[in-house]
Fold:
Amino acid sequence: MTLAIVLPDWQPRAPVQRIHLDWLEAAGVELACLRLDLIDPLISGNKWFKLAPHLQQACAAGAQGVISLGGAHSNHLHALAAAGRRFGFASIGLLRGSPQDTPTVRDLQAFGMQVHWLSHGEYRTRHAADFWAPWLVRYPHYHPVNEGGLALAGAEGCQPLVAMVEQQLPRLGWTDFHGWWLAAGTGTTLAGLVLAERGRRLVHGALAVPARYGVPEQVRALLRAAGHQAQAYHLFEAARGGFARVDTQLVNFISVTEHACGVPLEPLYTGKALMALRQQVLGGYFARGSRLVFVHTGGLQGRRAALGSRADYTEMQSLDAIT
Ligand SMILES: Cc1ncc(COP(=O)(O)O)c(C=O)c1O
Structure:
């Protein structure tokens, strides 16, 4: 018999660092990066902050494990499985589509996650009210967590990121900053920042998924659930034709940017988000003197599949070819 989950006493802090890139300097925009990718080699990025309140709930309910779902490259499942192994709780992952052997899936299994594959049709019903019922009959003492940690609890778990940055402003030589820039996949992290900011600083979300994924609606629902009225956020299209679609310009942008500032990026979220920021900066969206914080939301484990095999991922020196 598995023991009930014991809440881990782990409150990671990520460093904030200045990012210098020629297109930022030319536009007079200052950027700092909250390096959530550095909090842990395995439980990396925004995932822990979204997961922690779900684990609290699981712990309070006396659950023996956590069950959640995602794709064959899911950063969310990767972090959940790694946390399960680190903190000694059982985890189950429901994966989309036919069985695949990806670096992520191999890790999930190595971390001890029990994996089930759902057909695309079954996976599409994940938002239905009764989706979890049969799984909870099969695994009665498991706590279900939505795809990507999407829930008000997940958003609330991201609220401490605001204080994390504020505490480090003196080290940056900043007294304050004007806004946030981050990738949005479900919109949960963005909603957490909007809630914590209470309308003070604008939160800019770069949509890593196309409109049909319903992120604007999800963000509105999360904020409504928290009784929040203010609209202090903007969403920008950044999917470049589809979730997980990776084109040569994006790959080149990542290569040049990593070379120029030393921050590793991946193409699905952080690379697309920073490329969308460049587009807005070049278009004059931000006034000279603007100070922004870019949240590095992690996901670097996904590079193995997304960039590892690309012949066009090389050390580039120039952004001239990139629009
Ligand atoms: C690396 C990475 N960045 C950003 C996001 C988007 O976060 P959210 O779903 O909270 O919008 C995700 C998905 O969770 C992710 O894996």
Observations:
- Strands lie at 16-19, 30-35, 65-70, 90-96, 114-118, 142-144, 179-184, 202-207, 233-237, 291-296.
